[in-house]
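Q: What does the predicted 3D structure of PHD-type domain-containing protein look like?
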Amino acid sequence: MEGRETPTRPSRTTPSSPRVTPALVKRPRFQTLARFWEGQDVLARWTDGLLYLGIIKKVDSAQETCLVRFEDNSQFSVLWKDIFPPAVPGKEQLCCVCNSQSCTSDNKLVHCGKCKHAYHQECHVPSVPSDTDSPGSSWMCRQCVFAVATKRGGALKKGPYARSMLHMKLSLPYQLKPLEWDPLHLTNKQQCYCYCGGPGEWNMKMLQCCRCLQWFHEACTQCLSKPLLYGDRFYVFECSVCTRGPENAWRLPLAWVDVSHLVLYHLSICCKKKYFDFEREILSFVNENWESLLLGDLTDTPRSERYSNLLHALTAQKDRFISGKEIKKKKCLFGLQSRVPPPAPQSTVTELRLQETDVRSPAPCVREDGGPETPPTQNKDAKHSAKDAEGEAEAAESCYTGSYTKSTQS
C-alpha cells in the first residue's frame, strides 16, 4: 500500500499471534464474536499506530486473527482487536460494543457522524456527553478521531481534531494492569500499546512514558517538534493519562557515540543493510538532518568539526561499531556490532523523574476499581480516510531528508 512501510520479515504473514482477553481491550462485541468474512473491506491498525485499508482473505477463529491483504498486495495476520469493519446496514440501532439496543435516559445510543457506528454513551471510552446526539451536533467516535488526527512524525497539534484527540487521550480503552510484559518492559503478550490500543514495536518510533511505562506511537503523540528516528530513546516522556492533560517530552543529551549509534541504527532499518559509507551516507545524513536531530549542546558544533567527531566515535568504540577494515572491506565502511538501538541513559532518566516528583505529585494511570483509565475531565469529537492520513504523513516524514526507503519491522 502506498505510504505503508514494508516489514523486513515476510514471515509475519503467519505469526503465532497471542489471543487478547476480551475484558482487557474494550472492543466491539461483533469482533469478539468473529463477525468477519472473506472479502470484507476493513481498516487495520499497523504497528506504527496508523490505519490502512485492506481486504480480509482468511478468518482464523482459533487465534482471533484475520489474514488481511493491503493495497500494496502485502498480506499480514492482524488481531481482531486491531481490525475495524464498516457499519453493517440494518445494525445502526445496535451498540457496536455491547451489541444491544436497549437504552436508558442517561445511557442513550449515539451515532458517529463519520463511520455511522452506534455506541451507548457509557460503552464509548471516554463516555459521551448527553447533548451529543442533539440536532446539529457532529460527534465522532474515538476510532474516527484517531484516524483523522494521527500521522507520521506526530499527530495534529492544532484545530478541532487535535483538541478532540487530546480529550480522547485522557483515558485508555483498556486496562494497564492485566498486560503481561517481558522482563525489560519492552513488549507485552497482548500486543496492546498506546492510546489507540494497537500493536507496536518499541524500537520502531515509540516513546515510553516514564510514569506508567506504557509505550506510545509517534503517530499518536502531539508533543514532538521533530519526527523520531528508529531506536531513539533519548527522551523523557509523560503521557496524557499520567499528566491528566497535554503530554510532556524532554530531549536528553547525546554524546557523539550516541549520535553515531542512533544514525547507524536508523539507516540499517531504513536501508536493510549493515555497512554504510562514512562520508557518502553517515556524515551526509547527519549534515542534512542536523536541525531535526535535536542534539542539545552539540547543536552548535561547526560543520567542519562534525567529520572528526563522528569518525573518532566510530573508530574508538569497538564494542559498538565495526569498520570495513576489520572484515577486509573498504575502511570507509562502518556498521553496528549488533543491530540494536543505543542504550537509553537510565541515570539521566531517573534524575529527571525525581526532579518532576519534587514539583508535581504523580497522577496514577490505573484506577483502583480496575476499570479503564479515566481522569476526571473528558470530552470528545472527530476518522478520515486512510488515504488522507497517508498524504499528511508524507509531509511529516520529509523532515528527514535523505532518510531512504523506510521499513517498520526488524
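A (community wiki): The C-alpha cells above were generated from the sequence. Confidence is low (pLDDT under 50) at residues 1-23, 25-34, 358-399, 402-410. The radius of gyration is 22 Å.
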